[in-house]
Specification:
Helix content is 36%, strand content 14%. It is α/β, with parallel strands linked by helices. It folds into four domains: 2-168, HUPs (Rossmann fold), CATH 3.40.50; 183-229, no CATH class; 244-429, 3-Layer(aba) Sandwich (Molybdenum Cofactor Biosythetic Enzyme, Chain A), CATH 3.40.980; 432-464, no CATH class. The strands form four sheets. The chain has a six-stranded mixed β-sheet with strand order 3-2-1-4-6-5, covered by helices on one side. A six-stranded mixed β-sheet has the order 8-7-9-14-13-12, with helices on both faces. The protein has a two-stranded antiparallel sheet with strand order 10-11. Helix 3 (46-64) crosses helix 6 (168-178). The structure holds flavin mononucleotide, adenosine-5'-triphosphate and magnesium ion (MG). Keywords: ATP-binding, FAD, Flavoprotein, FMN, Nucleotide-binding, Nucleotidyltransferase, Transferase.
Length: 464
């Protein structure tokens, strides 16, 4: 079988592992469901083209176990569904039908929306599971596993996502290594294809001396920018810009003129054993105080997922912002990020954008098929990039993760954080604050306390 052969003969270990895992998912699904009970959702896009060949290879390997296989191009009995739309690119339509003809796909074309179309299909056919080319990083992938039941409100079926953990880079490595056809739009600078109304070529591939000539999609160096050619929808991903609604604080107005609160969490056994003097916590306390924030608590916890999770869970609801440092790195004992994911009840998932930053630092020294440091809490993570930082600051809702291990590094990260916060709506919250001293002739301390409670803003006044 040509796909299986091409992957086994290539020398890309990462691709081989991704391929083995994906075809394994296909084989397990085919062991669980009969051929009549599965369907393949194919739309001619690059991810579903990868999936087509993974399914062909997975089916071949499944049948090989039963000694009843010929590996022919047209040996593909899985029902294929295509939701046709008048808004689709003609190139996508023709590629879909041409591919169906080459590989003998039995295509059911559906002209309804996804949900109604699936409802009608499932009434008519015994389908129980559908293969999709969804990948982590797609807006619809959040919370999905390789086997994910359809969402509440959708007809009941299993979503099968064999290439869920593939990156943009993996997709192109596969298509080019296997030398299979893909839709011609990808050679014209399109990197992710939606409808004709929301998709243009990716401007990052524009050939500099020409406004309408683009390089092919596989030359996009940073997979995180795959959707740069898609019309913007509300999203948590920032691409270096900080969205107004994402400062992690609940309501701006309620904070105006009142004191913002922070908690600081240090993670590290060495601090608790007394082997290391913690200089970073006091530094952060001073910095927070200098911008008028009140530090409610500064705690230290063990390098252990549950200790981090419990402390983050406590502090994130108590304070406006939580700053956490220590336990961020490549060691097995570095569990801060896993603890934060646990505190928010989300899983760790590969973050393609973060992986690209790490790749630039580690370069070719990066071995293996998965960079564990690029696993970040799914659906709640924003990367705040600053030119002075080699990797961005990581923000999970109102928790800021600082990877500094010494004061000069912390100073740099703090300065960058302040600058980035100023460029977002956090600016209003970082307005200079004025501390005023009063002298009173009131004789007893109790009267002084009363005065503080009656007009606190006199003691802490925002500049406006
Ligand atoms: C076969 C199939 C099954 C789907 N199942 C679900 C589902 O269970 N829950 C859901 O919210 N969306 C489901 N969707 C919709 C997708 O999540 C998503 O909205 C769709 O692929 C459009 O993506 P786009 O807006 O990026 O083009 C399904 C789509 C397809 C084609
Ligand atoms: N119109 C459709 N008909 C059938 N399946 C679809 C359709 N739209 C999306 N899908 C399914 O959802 C998956 C994810 O869609 P998505 O647009 O992210 O990927 P793609 O179209 O394969 O590639 P690209 O990201 O380049 O557009 C597809 O691989 C396919 O399985
Ligand atoms: Mg698409």
């Amino acid at each position: 079988m040509e796909i299986d052969k091409a992957i086994r003969e290539c020398d890309d270990r990462r691709l081989q592992t991704k391929y083995n895992n994906a075809t394994y998912v296909v084989q397990r699904a085919l062991a669980l469901y009969s051929i009549e009970e599965v369907a393949f959702s194919f739309n001619g896009g690059k991810d579903s083209t990868v999936l087509l060949h993974i399914l062909r290879a997975g089916y071949f390997l499944h049948k090989k176990g039963q000694n009843s296989v010929n590996g022919d191009l047209k040996d593909f009995p899985i029902r294929t569904i295509y939701f046709e739309s008048p808004c689709a690119f003609p190139e996508i339509n023709s590629f879909t039908y041409d591919t169906a003809a080459i590989y003998g796909l039995q295509i059911d074309t559906i002209s309804l929306d996804f949900k109604s179309g699936l409802e009608a299909l499932l009434k008519e056919k015994p389908i129980r599971a559908i293969f999709l080319g969804v990948r982590i990083g797609d807006p619809t992938a959040v919370g999905q596993e390789q086997f994910s039941p359809s969402s509440p409100g959708w007809p009941p079926f299993m979503r099968l996502n064999p290439i869920l953990d593939w990156s943009y880079r993996d997709v192109w490595a596969f298509l080019l290594t296997c030398k299979v056809n893909y839709c011609s739009l990808y050679d014209q600078g399109y990197t992710s294809i939606g409808s004709i109304y929301d998709t243009v070529p990716n401007s990052l591939l524009c050939i500099s001396n020409s406004s309408n000539k683009f390089k092919p999609a596989y030359l996009l160096a940073d997979g995180r920018l795959e959707r740069a050619g898609r019309a913007k929808r509300p999203s948590t991903s920032t691409g270096g810009q900080i969205p107004a609604e994402s400062n992690g604080l609940t309501s701006q107005d309620s904070y105006k003129n009142s004191m913002l609160t922070a908690s600081i969490i240090a993670v590290g056994d060495e601090i608790l054993f007394g082997n290391l003097e913690d200089l970073l916590g006091p530094y952060l306390c001073r910095k927070l105080h200098s911008i008028g924030w009140s530090v409610l608590q500064h705690s230290a916890v063990h390098n252990n997922i549950d200790s981090v999770a419990e402390e983050v869970e406590r502090q994130k609801s108590k304070s406006d912002m939580v700053f956490i440092y220590g336990g961020v790195g490549p060691l097995h004992s570095d569990v801060t990020i896993a603890g934060i994911a646990k505190a928010f009840g989300v899983r760790l998932a590969p973050d393609e954008e973060f992986e690209e930053y790490l790749r630039h630092i580690i370069g070719d020294q990066c071995t293996g098929d998965r960079n564990e440091m690029a696993q970040l809490p799914e659906g709640i993570t924003e990367l705040w990039h600053h030119d002075k930082l080699s990797v961005p600051l990581i923000k999970c809702e109102n928790v800021i993760i600082l990877s500094a291990t010494n004061v000069p590094e912390m100073e740099k990260q703090w300065d960058c954080w302040i600058e980035l916060a100023k460029s977002s709506d956090l600016l209003a919250l970082l307005e200079p604050y004025v501390s005023k001293h009063v002298t009173t002739s009131l004789s007893d301390a109790l009267s002084m306390v009363r005065l503080i409670f009656m007009c606190p803003s006199f003691f802490l006044i925002a500049s406006d």
